[in-house]
Description:
Number of strands: 9
CATH topology: Rossmann fold
CATH class: Alpha Beta
Structural class: alpha/beta
Largest sheet: 7 strands, mixed
Order of helices and strands: HHHEEHEHEHEEHEEE
Helix content: 25-40%
CATH architecture: 3-Layer(aba) Sandwich
Number of domains: 1
Number of helices: 7
Shape: globular
Radius of gyration: 16 Å
Strand order of the largest sheet: 5-4-3-6-7-8-9
CATH superfamily: Vaccinia Virus protein VP39
Amino acid sequence: MDERAALLEEIALEMRETARWTGRAELSPRVMAALAKVRREAFVSPGTLRDAYANRPLPIGHAQTISQPFIVALMTELLDLQPDDTVLEIGTGSGYQTAVLAELAARVCSVEVIPALADRATAVLAEQGYANIEFRTGDGGLGWPEYAPFDAIIVTAAATEMPPALVEQLRPGGRMVIPVGPHHGEQELFLITKDAAGTVSTRSILPVAFVPLTGG
């Protein structure tokens, strides 16, 4: 079994083991196919290339990480993305999560606060052939109001509180996944849903550990 297939099996096992909290015992076929297709080795730093398919976060410089594959899988699954969706990603980082989203949605709008990471991710994603991604460098907590509302929003760094601009930019019927909590403190992954009437509901999914969400 190759490293990518082994990682997918490990993710599937972890999905089953955490189902009592997440409500998801397995990944949808579309999410599984996206994870199988995206080349994680293209997004890791050269010094961690041999660990590209390890099920753990890896440093990518600038005090940031490429997220654990299981967490990428779970957050993506919770979004329930449809092929014609437009999704907002806060925290482009390495671009790995961005690529997974681009496999599943019609359009990805990705915001990164660190220019060097934004530039590298933009180049790598272009090299990998993705043409359905819009990039912006700036404060992710402000979202991207020009393209709002969004069918789904994913935040890949921990906010100390729920950013009101992101909740506002979520389309009725949409879903947002976001880690919330202090840096080096207890953080939780939340699923935010907005019904057709605009009523917002919040559900805690799992305890997590993310780098902090920072402004421009």
